[in-house]
Amino acid sequence: MVGQKRLLLLAATCLVLGGIWWHLFYTDKRSATEPVEVPLGWLGEDILLTGERGRLFIRTSSTTRIEIYALEGKNAEFGFGDACIGSHRWWFTTSTVLRKNGRVSSSISKRLALPVEGLGDDGIPKIGTPIEYDWRDHPMLPSCEVDLSSEATSAFLRSSESFQNDRSIQIDGEPVRLEYAGGRFAQQVEGSLFLDRDPVGLIHLIGDSASRFSFPQPYADTLKIGRRLNWGEIIWDRSLGHALFIHNTCSSGRTDDPECRRKALWLTPDLEPLSTVEMPGKSLIKIKPGYSCFSCGCGCYSHEQIYAENGVIYAHVWGYPVENNARGIYRLLQTQSGPTWEKLVSGRPQAPLAFNPRGDRVAFFEISRLGDELRIAEISKQP
Hints:
By secondary structure, this protein is mainly beta. It has a domain at about 35-145. About 10% of the residues lie in helices and about 45% in strands. The chain contains 4 helices and 26 strands. It has helices at about 1-25, 150-160, 160-165, 215-225, and strands at about 40, 50, 55-60, 65-70, 75-85, 90-100, 105-120, 125, 130-135, 170, 175, 180, 190-195, 200-205, 210-215, 230-235, 240-250, 260-265, 275-280, 305-310, 310-320, 330-335, 340-345, 350-355, 360-365, 375-380. The chain is globular and about 95 Å long.
């Protein structure tokens, strides 16, 4: 009898401990604990620029950081999502953010340019006198190295009646619908980049002048452009000095999507095609059982983003509904059996990522039950 009670007590204890373990380590936090430190970019192989609310820092490791700039006013915060970090100038939006009883309200106030006046002997950048621009006068962020006063493309599109009516402009007397080419290459060029469907390629708009860049016909035939409008993005590889165009029609969370096609094309800085890149034809995102992906559903909280650094293509998968073993950072490998993704980092790394130019370190903010933190992870070089 005593033995049975001990067994029951042991079983109950195991259930309680198992439940605690399940809650703490298997189930996940839905969001990060504020404040979040965002990796903004590497200024060298071993110097990382980060931001946290209204402050900017320099890091040389996961454990040491130096504050180099702070906004005035306790409620002033940076908008890091559209930051543009150039070699001579950094662009940010700034906001007035109020927090009360768990609620957050904000209003965008300024565009802020921070001139970078070289580096000190310790490698820390010297920040010059900040320049503020009114949001209403300049609603679009310029590229990193282009001054706002010369951003004529945005002014042309705002004043174009045809663009305002149906997002089309005239090129050689022909109406062409402009579909924005998503990705991070647009910050590197003056003007704006758009997708072109016929011929398949890109449109580069500077002021009111448009240039068309067509992709090779075999590549265009492979794309089989269909009903999905958001079919491409273009990414800048700053170490290689080339751009990567990626065609992707894969749905989030559907590994059996019959319309899932992926292919990439390396381009010169002048958008001339160089070589094609084969990619796995399925999504890396796998949704946990029990989640219904209706309306925006899982697509709002599950994400996959491509990076290119030093000629290597990476993929980042994150989001609360994504299966634990699917989250992480991957590298694209070309094998005898075809292209495949190799996982480099597991856990819950959040966007954005920042790879150093050498490609052996990646910085990210990680959500964890054991404590949120900014991490700089060592990654092996491509074999």
